[in-house]
C-alpha cells in the first residue's frame, strides 16, 4: 500500500467528516456507549425517531 | 491538571518567542502577493485586468487577518481560556449542548450563515464597479463582519449560549431588549420577503427553472421517507440519491420546455407568489423529518459543491474584468439597478459577505452550545465568516466579468427597459454601453430562456456569470445546463431559508405571545403552531406580493430595506459587544467592536435618513410618494405606472417602505441610547461591573485550538488520553 496510503487516508478523513457532519456517526457513538455500559441497544429505527423528535423542537438556523 | 499544556499555547502566557524563519518567510510572501494584487486593482485603468487579482487580493488579506488580527482578538481582547469548560462540556446532554469537533462545527456554522445573501448583494453592487464592492467585502469582513461573528459567539458561549435578544435585555436593559426583539422579528420578515422575491424573479416565465425547483420537493419528501422508514439514519446514502435525482431534474427541465407540460409550468409572478406562500406555510407546520431536514442536507451539499466548482472554474477560465473599476453611477447616484450614491448604498447593498447582522442570531443560537473549547471561537466565528466573504467575492467576480450591456439589461427594472430586447437595447445604449437587440436575444437563447430582460434580483445574473465561467473552464456546449443548475441551487437554498426562517419566526412569535397566553407558547400545541405559522407567512407573503407587483420594481424598492435592516441588526450586535467589553473592564479594547459599530451606525443612519427624508424621489420613499400623489391628484399617470391603479400602488408601497425604514432606525437608536447609558455608568465604576457571565468551571477536555493540531497539542492529547485510561482502568 505505497501509493494508496495517502489516498486511503484522505478518503477515510472525508468519510469521517461527512458522517460526523450529517449526524450518522451518532449511532456508532450510541452503540459504543451501550457496549461500554453493557446496556442492550434500542433499534436504529427507534433511535432515529428520538433524534428527529428532538430536532422538531429546535429551530434550524439558516441565514440569508 | 493535564490541561496545562493547552492553557499555555492558547492563553499566550509564556514569554514572546522569536518566530521561526520559515514562518517569517511564508507570511512575508503572502503579504507581498496581496500587496501586488491590491496595487494592480487600484492602478489599472482602461487595460485588461484578470479577475484573479481580486481573488488573490482577497485570499492574502484573509490569511493575514486570520493569522494576526483574529489571534490578537482571541488572546488580548476576549482572553479566551481553554482551562474553562464550555457550555457544551458543562451541560452536555446530547441534545442542545453537545461537544462537537471544531472542524465539524465549522461545517455546521458555515452551512447556517451562508445563504443567498452573499451571492446576490455583490451582483447588485456591481453597478458601482468592481473596486468599491471588492474593498468593502474584504475590509468589511476583516474589521467588522468576522469580528462581530466571533465576539458575539464568545460572549454567548460565556453565558450558556444565550440568544442575542436575551443578552441585550440582561446587559443593556428591558426597553433595549424589547426594541431588539421587535427589530429582530421585523427584520426577519423583510429578509424572508426579499429572499422569496429573488426566487420569484428567477423562476417567472421559466418552465425549465420551475420544473427543476418543483421537483426538489418530491425529492426531499422521498429522502425524508427513506430516512424515516426505509433505511433509518443513512443520511449519506439518502443525500447521494437526492443529489443524483436533482441533477436529473435539472437535465430533464431542458426537455419539458417545448411540451404542454412546459406551457403549464410557465408561471406568472403572481402565481409563483401564491405557490411560495402555500409552500412556506405547509413546510413550516410539517414535521421536520419529512421535508426540512432532508432538504437542508441537499441544499448544503449543493452549496458547498457549487462554491468549490466556481472556485476551480475561476482558476481555469481566468476571466477578464468587463466592468469599470468605479462607474459613473457610483459618483452620480443615478444607477438603474438601485438608486443612491456609492456612500452609503454600496455598504447597504453588500451586507452578507462583509457584515451581516443576521449572523449574530446564529452565533448566539446553536453554535455556542456546541463549542468544545473557548479558543475555537476564532476558527468558527472569524474563520467561518471569512469563508462566507470568499463566496461573496466569487459572486462579485461572476457579475463583473459578464458583458456589461447584458448586466444592465438584466438588472434594470422592467419599467426602465420596457421588457423587450429592442427597448432594452435602446435603454442600455442610452446608458453608454455597447449592445444590440440581437446580442440580448442571443444571450437569452444561449441559456435557453425566453428572455433575460429585467431578470432582476441578482440570481439570474449570477447564473449567467457562473454559466459563462464554467463553460469557459470546462468547455462543451453546456451553457444552458450550467445556467439552470445555478438557478436551481440558488432557489434550493433560498427555499430552505424560507422554511427554516418561517419556523424560527413561528417559534419567536409563540415564545413572545406565550408570555401572556401560556397555551400559545407550547410548541406541541397544534392550533398554536398553525396560527403562528399563518401569521408569519401572511406577513412576509404580503410584502412579497407588494414587491412583485410594484411598478417601480420590487428589487429596486425592497433590496435597500433588506440591506439596511440586516446592517441595523449588526449595529445592535456590535452595541452589545462594545457594552460587554466595557463592563468586563476592557474598555481600552472597546475600539475593536467600537470602530465597526460607529462605521455601521454612520452608514445605516445616513441611508435611513436619505430613504426617509431625501428630496430625490428616486431615493427617498416619501419624496417618491409625494411625487406620485401630486401627479395622481392632478389626474396624470407617471411612467412606469400605466394607470391610476398602479399610481395608487406606488403611493401605498412607498409609504409602507418609508414607515418600515423609519421604525427600524428608531428601534436601533433606542437600543443605542440605552447602551450609551450603560457604558457611561460602567466607565464610572472602576474595574468593571457585574455581568451575567457564568462563573468558570475547570475543563477536563484536551483539544487542539486551531484547524490543525500542533505537535505540542498532539502530545498533550495523547498524555490526557493515557491519564483517562488509567483513571477508568483503576476504577473498574
Automatic annotation (TrEMBL), chain A:
<protein>
    <recommendedName>
        <fullName>YbdD/YjiX family protein</fullName>
    </recommendedName>
</protein>
<dbReference type="InterPro" id="IPR007423">
    <property type="entry name" value="Sel_put"/>
</dbReference>
<dbReference type="Pfam" id="PF04328">
    <property type="entry name" value="Sel_put"/>
</dbReference>
Automatic annotation (TrEMBL), chain B:
<feature type="transmembrane region" description="Helical">
    <location>
        <begin position="236"/>
        <end position="256"/>
    </location>
</feature>
<feature type="transmembrane region" description="Helical">
    <location>
        <begin position="271"/>
        <end position="292"/>
    </location>
</feature>
<feature type="transmembrane region" description="Helical">
    <location>
        <begin position="342"/>
        <end position="362"/>
    </location>
</feature>
<feature type="transmembrane region" description="Helical">
    <location>
        <begin position="480"/>
        <end position="498"/>
    </location>
</feature>
<feature type="transmembrane region" description="Helical">
    <location>
        <begin position="178"/>
        <end position="204"/>
    </location>
</feature>
<feature type="transmembrane region" description="Helical">
    <location>
        <begin position="304"/>
        <end position="322"/>
    </location>
</feature>
<feature type="transmembrane region" description="Helical">
    <location>
        <begin position="24"/>
        <end position="44"/>
    </location>
</feature>
<feature type="transmembrane region" description="Helical">
    <location>
        <begin position="528"/>
        <end position="546"/>
    </location>
</feature>
<feature type="transmembrane region" description="Helical">
    <location>
        <begin position="135"/>
        <end position="157"/>
    </location>
</feature>
<dbReference type="InterPro" id="IPR051605">
    <property type="entry name" value="CstA"/>
</dbReference>
<comment type="similarity">
    <text>Belongs to the peptide transporter carbon starvation (CstA) (TC 2.A.114) family.</text>
</comment>
<keyword id="KW-0812">Transmembrane</keyword>
<feature type="transmembrane region" description="Helical">
    <location>
        <begin position="589"/>
        <end position="609"/>
    </location>
</feature>
<keyword id="KW-1003">Cell membrane</keyword>
<feature type="transmembrane region" description="Helical">
    <location>
        <begin position="50"/>
        <end position="69"/>
    </location>
</feature>
<feature type="transmembrane region" description="Helical">
    <location>
        <begin position="382"/>
        <end position="402"/>
    </location>
</feature>
<dbReference type="InterPro" id="IPR003706">
    <property type="entry name" value="CstA_N"/>
</dbReference>
<feature type="domain" description="CstA N-terminal">
    <location>
        <begin position="51"/>
        <end position="607"/>
    </location>
</feature>
<feature type="transmembrane region" description="Helical">
    <location>
        <begin position="110"/>
        <end position="129"/>
    </location>
</feature>
<keyword id="KW-1133">Transmembrane helix</keyword>
<dbReference type="GO" id="GO:0005886">
    <property type="term" value="C:plasma membrane"/>
</dbReference>
<feature type="transmembrane region" description="Helical">
    <location>
        <begin position="210"/>
        <end position="229"/>
    </location>
</feature>
Amino acid at each position: 500500500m505505497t501509493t494508496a496510503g495517502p489516498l486511503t487516508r484522505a478518503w477515510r478523513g472525508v468519510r469521517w467528516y461527512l458522517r460526523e457532519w450529517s449526524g450518522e456517526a451518532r449511532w456508532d457513538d450510541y452503540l459504543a456507549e451501550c457496549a461500554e455500559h453493557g446496556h442492550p441497544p434500542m433499534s436504529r429505527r427507534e433511535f432515529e425517531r428520538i433524534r428527529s423528535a428532538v430536532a422538531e423542537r429546535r429551530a434550524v438556523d439558516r441565514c440569508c | 491538571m493535564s490541561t496545562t499544556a493547552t492553557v499555555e499555547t492558547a492563553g499566550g502566557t509564556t514569554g514572546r518567542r522569536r518566530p521561526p524563519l520559515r514562518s517569517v518567510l511564508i507570511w512575508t510572501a503572502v503579504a507581498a502577493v496581496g500587496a501586488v494584487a491590491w496595487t494592480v486593482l487600484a492602478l489599472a485603468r482602461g487595460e485588461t485586468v484578470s479577475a484573479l487579482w481580486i481573488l488573490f487580493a482577497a485570499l492574502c488579506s484573509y490569511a493575514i487577518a486570520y493569522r494576526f488580527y483574529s489571534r490578537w482578538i482571541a488572546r488580548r481582547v476576549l482572553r479566551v481560556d481553554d482551562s474553562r469548560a464550555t457550555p457544551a462540556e458543562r451541560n452536555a446532554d446530547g441534545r442542545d449542548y453537545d461537544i462537537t469537533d471544531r472542524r465539524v462545527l465549522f461545517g455546521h456554522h458555515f452551512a447556517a450563515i451562508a445563504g443567498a445573501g452573499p451571492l446576490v448583494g455583490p451582483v447588485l453592487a456591481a453597478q458601482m464597479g468592481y473596486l468599491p464592492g471588492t474593498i468593502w467585502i474584504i475590509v468589511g469582513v476583516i474589521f467588522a463582519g468576522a469580528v462581530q461573528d466571533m465576539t458575539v459567539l464568545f460572549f454567548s458561549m460565556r453565558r450558556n449560549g444565550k440568544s442575542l435578544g436575551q443578552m441585550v435585555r440582561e446587559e443593556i436593559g428591558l426597553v433595549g431588549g424589547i426594541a431588539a426583539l421587535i427589530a429582530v422579528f421585523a427584520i426577519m420578515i423583510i429578509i424572508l420577503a426579499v429572499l422569496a422575491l429573488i426566487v420569484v424573479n428567477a423562476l417567472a416565465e421559466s418552465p425549465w427553472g420551475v420544473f427543476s425547483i418543483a421537483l426538489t420537493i418530491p425529492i426531499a419528501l422521498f429522502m425524508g421517507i427513506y430516512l424515516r422508514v426505509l433505511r433509518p439514519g443513512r443520511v449519506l446514502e439518502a443525500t447521494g440519491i437526492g443529489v443524483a435525482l436533482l441533477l436529473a431534474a435539472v437535465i430533464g427541465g431542458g426537455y419539458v420546455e417545448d411540451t404542454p407540460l412546459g406551457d403549464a409550468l410557465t408561471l406568472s409572478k403572481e402565481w409563483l407568489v401564491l405557490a411560495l406562500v402555500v409552500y412556506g406555510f405547509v413546510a413550516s407546520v410539517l414535521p421536520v423529518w419529512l421535508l426540512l431536514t432532508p432538504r437542508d442536507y441537499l441544499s448544503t451539499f449543493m452549496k458547498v459543491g457549487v462554491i468549490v466548482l466556481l472556485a476551480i472554474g475561476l482558476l481555469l477560465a481566468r476571466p477578464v474584468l468587463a466592468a469599470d473599476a468605479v462607474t459613473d453611477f457610483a459618483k452620480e447616484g443615478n444607477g438603474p439597478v438601485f438608486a443612491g450614491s456609492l456612500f452609503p448604498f454600496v455598504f447597504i447593498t453588500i451586507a452578507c459577505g462583509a457584515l451581516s447582522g443576521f449572523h449574530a442570531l446564529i452565533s448566539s443560537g446553536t453554535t455556542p452550545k456546541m463549542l468544545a473549547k473557548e479558543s475555537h471561537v476564532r476558527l468558527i466565528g472569524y474563520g467561518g465568516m471569512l469563508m462566507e466573504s470568499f463566496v461573496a467575492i466569487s459572486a462579485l467576480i461572476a457579475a463583473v466579468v459578464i458583458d456589461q450591456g447584458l448586466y444592465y439589461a438584466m438588472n434594470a427594472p422592467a419599467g426602465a427597459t420596457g421588457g423587450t430586447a429592442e427597448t432594452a437595447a435602446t435603454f442600455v445604449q442610452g446608458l453608454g454601453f455597447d449592445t444590440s437587440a440581437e446580442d440580448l436575444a442571443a444571450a437569452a437563447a444561449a441559456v435557453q430562456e425566453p428572455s433575460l430582460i429585467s431578470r432582476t434580483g441578482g440570481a439570474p445574473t449570477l447564473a449567467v456569470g457562473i454559466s459563462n465561467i464554467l463553460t469557459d473552464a470546462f468547455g462543451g456546449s453546456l451553457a444552458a445546463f450550467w445556467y439552470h443548475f445555478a438557478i436551481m441551487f440558488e432557489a434550493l437554498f433560498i427555499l430552505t431559508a424560507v422554511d427554516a426562517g418561517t419556523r424560527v419566526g413561528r417559534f419567536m412569535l409563540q415564545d413572545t405571545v406565550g408570555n401572556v397566553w401560556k397555551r400559545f407558547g407550547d410548541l406541541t400545541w397544534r392550533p398554536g403552531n398553525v396560527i403562528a405559522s399563518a401569521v408569519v407567512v401572511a406577513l412576509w407573503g404580503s410584502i412579497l406580493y407588494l414587491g412583485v407587483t410594484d411598478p417601480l420594481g420590487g428589487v429596486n424598492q425592497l433590496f435597500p430595506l433588506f440591506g439596511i435592516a440586516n446592517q441595523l441588526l449588526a449595529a445592535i450586535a456590535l452595541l452589545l459587544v462594545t457594552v460587554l467589553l466595557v463592563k468586563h473592564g476592557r474598555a481600552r479594547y472597546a475600539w475593536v467592536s467600537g470602530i465597526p459599530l460607529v462605521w455601521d451606525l454612520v452608514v445605516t443612519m445616513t441611508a435611513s435618513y436619505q430613504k426617509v427624508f431625501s428630496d430625490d424621489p428616486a431615493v427617498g420613499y416619501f419624496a417618491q410618494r409625494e411625487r406620485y400623489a401630486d401627479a395622481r391628484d392632478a389626474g396624470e399617470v407617471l411612467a412606469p405606472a400605466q394607470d391610476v391603479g398602479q399610481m395608487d400602488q406606488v403611493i401605498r408601497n412607498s409609504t409602507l417602505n418609508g414607515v418600515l425604514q423609519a421604525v427600524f432606525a428608531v428601534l436601533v437608536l433606542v437600543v443605542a441610547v440605552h447602551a450609551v447609558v450603560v457604558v457611561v455608568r460602567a466607565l464610572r465604576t472602576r474595574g468593571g461591573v457585574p455581568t451575567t457571565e457564568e462563573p468558570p468551571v475547570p475543563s477536563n477536555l484536551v483539544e487542539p485550538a486551531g484547524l490543525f493540531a500542533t505537535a505540542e497539542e498532539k502530545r498533550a492529547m495523547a498524555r490526557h488520553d493515557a491519564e483517562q485510561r488509567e483513571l477508568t482502568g483503576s476504577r473498574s
